[in-house]
Amino acid sequence: MSKRDDLRARTQAMQAQSQQTRAVTVAPSEPPASLAAPPAVRVKPVRQTLDLAPDHYERLHAWSAETARGLGVMPSKVNAQTTLRALVARMLDDPELATAVREDVKRSLAT
Length: 111
What we know:
Elements lengths: L2 H23 L28 H18 L8 H14 L1 H16 L1
């Protein structure tokens, strides 16, 4: 076999292999909508950070300690996270509180 024939055979083999690879990779990247899985529902809590003014932090800490004493539990049980979770849940369920918070937000945005 001459060099020319050898190169021609290699080129044809590479082209055939390339065409097979393209046929495999050209498949649709997404399944049809009818086969797509529904979006996942998030079940893990979402972390949210909050920067407080030093005065608000101190007052929240004092309130938490006072509340823990009143409930007869260790102060570590009434921390900022527990308090803020309860406050958010209450705000979302209580239209009056939600309105008051909305007004506070409006006032803070105006300054």
